[in-house]
Amino acid sequence: MLDGSNPKQGKIWKKATLTFSFDGRTMTHDFLISPIGSHNAILGIKWLEKESPEIDWSTRQLSLPIPSPETATIAQEEEVDDSPLAGIPEQYHVYAKVFGEEEFNKLPLIATMTSGLT
């Protein structure tokens, strides 16, 4: 069968579409079901062309390269909000200071606690 001859143990019976994980990637492919002896699977040319795995022939290992993104945004500047309390009910405006930068940079008070557990 791998040399182009017909399978000796039987013909291809069915096709199944399977979703599986390989090398950290989830993929969906069609599989042809046939008795193939002691092999778990035979990778076809269509799969090899589509996935383009890296093959280490000396160790017989396959790995799929992770494509690097063309652009990546790490951070960007935001415009200053002229009305940061817009959309917040007026009765909560008195608590706005708690969420300001000055309060954010303060450390909490250290309190000692006593516990009845020993």
Automatic annotation (TrEMBL):
Superkingdom, natural source: Eukaryota
InterPro entries hit by this protein: Peptidase_aspartic_dom_sf
UniProt name for this protein: Uncharacterized protein
Organism: Thanatephorus cucumeris (strain AG1-IB / isolate 7/3/14)
